[in-house]
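User: Some background: our group keeps a shared notebook of sequences we're curious about, and every so often someone picks one and asks for a predicted structure to add to the entry. Today it's my turn. The entry only has the sequence so far, pasted here. Could you supply the structure so I can complete it?
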Amino acid sequence: MGNDFSKLSPKEFIHTIRTRSQRKTQETPSKTVKAESVTSNPTPTPTPTPITPTAAAAAAAAAALPAPSVIQASETDGAVFNDEDAVFWHPSQDDSNREYHNVDSSSYFLPSDMQEQTRLDLQHHMLVMLFKDPIICTPVKEIMTKKSTKVLDVGCAMGTWLDTVYRTYLNPEYHGVDIADELNQWEKMSMAKCVFGNVLEGLPYEDNAFNFVHQRLLFTGVPKAKWPAVIAELARVTKSGGWIQLLEYDVVTYRQGPASKALGGTFAAMLDKRGMDIHAGSNLVPHMNEASNNSGGSMRLTNITQKTVSCPIGWGGKVGELFAQDSEKALQSMKAFLPKIMGLTNEAYDALVKENMAECGRNQSFGNFTCVYAQVVKN
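Assistant: Of course. Here's the predicted structure to add to the notebook entry:
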């Protein structure tokens, strides 16, 4: 795949890689085809070599990012649906060697194994580099030096964010909660007390338990209609005068080519059909306002502050390199259902992912992350 396909529409591109995959299968000796047909978990495509420009080139690339507030894009443009049933795939249907959570009521579909934790570590370092700090909520730093401060990370996994914050702030008491119980039980530098819990069903803590509550990138697991209730639950366990910090992503890739339109459009349309908020980042402030309005006057969120940052994919230096690796690993993590949705063989899907990553570098593609923090006030 290369620049000769850059002018194809997403559907034309999908047809091309399907045809190539079928032709290659027909030309392959029957013995090899038989072996491939029983392979349930092919080796993922290696991560492509990222573009690492000079300091001057990186600065110029960063300056090329348009202001997020003026960008318009069709997030589901290019969606390809071949199997509607696969849209609602649940981890209980998985037949690969990946590990998932065991919560039947949760629609979260990404793995919870060490391979996924490696991706989350990459993602964490990318976000810290992008926002310059794991704590974007600057007002809360005043209390992070106190031993009486209690911090909670919702969706903590193995506690990477908790450990990063602990390296700077040794005094607070750290806690974490996640539906992936096998991950959050690993020993952490922060000595965080981590437990099993699902924010959609209520956090396993008393009211007013924490001074600072952090949650990020749950847009694939929180239905759009439930975001205000989730934020209200975060506020419930936060003390009056404490702070909540949320960081989310809008499922839109800007400066797309046909491969990224097909993949990104299908992923966004899939999330939309599952009832998720594909503009979770942009909608955090409205969701917060709704949570306050629904409280009956018992709680309000004030001093709401939003910060949106554009992140390059596969260009623009180290942060772009990390986002490209994170994106490719995430796409491979969805190999159990995305190829089925798009009507692709695993081989054709690998080719699509590879071309998607190449396109992002060529086109200087990017996405937007939004962090919103607010102070909780209770009457």
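Suggested note for the entry: Residues 25-63, 66-73 have pLDDT under 50 and may be disordered. Residues 156 and 374 are 20 Å apart (CA to CA).
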